[in-house]
Amino acid sequence: MTEPRVALVHERLTEYGGSEAVVAEFMKVWPDAPVFAPIVEPECRDLLLRAAGLDTTATDLVRDTPLSRLHAATGGRSHAPLLPFVPRALRRLPLDSYDAVVISHHAFATQAALATDAPVIAYVHSPARWAWDPAFRAREAGGRAGQAALTVLGGLARRGELRAAPKLTRVVANSQAVARRVEQWWGLPADVVNPPVRVDRFAPDPALEREDFFLFAGRLVPYKRPDLAILAARKAGVRLVILGDGRYRRQLESLAGPETTFLGAASDEVLLDTYRRCRALLMPGVEDFGIVPVEAMACGTPVVAVGAGGALDTVIPGVSGEHVEAGDDDAVVSGFARALREFDPSVYDVTTIRKHAETFSPEAFRGRIADIVSRNRR
Question: What is the pTM (predicted TM-score) of this model?
Fold first, then answer.
């Protein structure tokens, strides 16, 4: 069988994060495939090319739309005002000449399926949770004006996802929780391929001893629920270190007691060192998957997570960590506080946790995705 001509589609290239890392792995599988994105910032494009192992002069592989020029003309301050125009830009992409189109989706990207008759494989980070879940939208809105804007945009996203769903040849979800959302909200079955985690960058250090603190690491935004970790640490009377920054930080500092230390945004070196020294990582929010817990586990560090979302894929109770039963905020705080008071590091084996983390490697991810596309091409 000849190598398929593949096109890649991504929502936007305005900042580099977990979904962009997935696209970089797609590019390693299909190094000649163009990446279409409605809005592209040069800095993010170059980060993507480097992550894919390509020279930053290969800019012709990343193809944008006129929305990029509009974004730049307005100073590139925020892509948010352009989001209502993104679906139409995606529907106008030149995708018909390819043997397969692979889409990286978390709000609008599946609209590209309406631009082609080629087989379309959608890798779904999640259907737009802020569009489908009113409680999630309320937490993320940031006030009455934000709530109104997200409600209008959410209607656009829901209609777009439902319109595109019948055109998808195959849906691949990044976790069991996301697969359930795809079935509930789109009425489609989904395979599960967990996203790639650079476990090679993280490893245990036998020379370091575990210290008497727990860790929360990640962006300080409402859906990650760092507030629950802080309240649980206060209730349990244990030390908590918070690595990360974000718009939620000032509010979180007002919640924290003397047992909580904020270290702000950290370098990779500081993150690695802290993973290796903490007793356990805390994951109080419901993540679609959760890269940070797997990074911690690659260091042999157990994870205490709410038993929902991506933690059901990554955290094995008694092996790589523990689940705290999901519930309302008070119940989750009490559950975490109890788990922290009773936490026994001797239960966990560093080597076993590390081996579990290796099952989420980029190599494993690329092999699974390549196999699915090879079976769903022209």
Answer: 0.84
Reduced to 3 states (helix: H, G, I; strand: E, B; else coil), residue 246 is coil
Extract the tokens encoding 195: 């996203």
The reply to whether 234 and 182 lie within a common domain is no
182 vs 179: CA distance, rounded Å: 5
- Containing domain of residue 353, as a range? 199-358
Are 106 and 221 part of one and the same domain?
Answer: no
Do residues 328 and 214 make contact, with C-beta atoms less than 8 angstroms apart? no
Residue 6 has phi, psi (to 5 degrees) of -110, 140
Judge if 136 and 218 occupy the same domain.
Answer: no
Q: Give yes or no: residues 207 and 192 share one domain.
A: no
The pLDDT of residue 202? 95
Mean pLDDT by 10 residues, the chain (378 residues): 88 92 97 97 96 93 95 82 92 96 96 97 92 76 68 87 97 95 96 94 93 95 94 97 93 95 93 97 93 96 96 96 96 98 94 96 96 94
1 falls within a domain: no
Distance from C-alpha of 216 to C-alpha of 331, rounded to nearest angstrom: 19
3-class DSSP assignment, residue 75: coil
Q: How far apart are CA 23 and CA 30, in angstroms?
A: 10
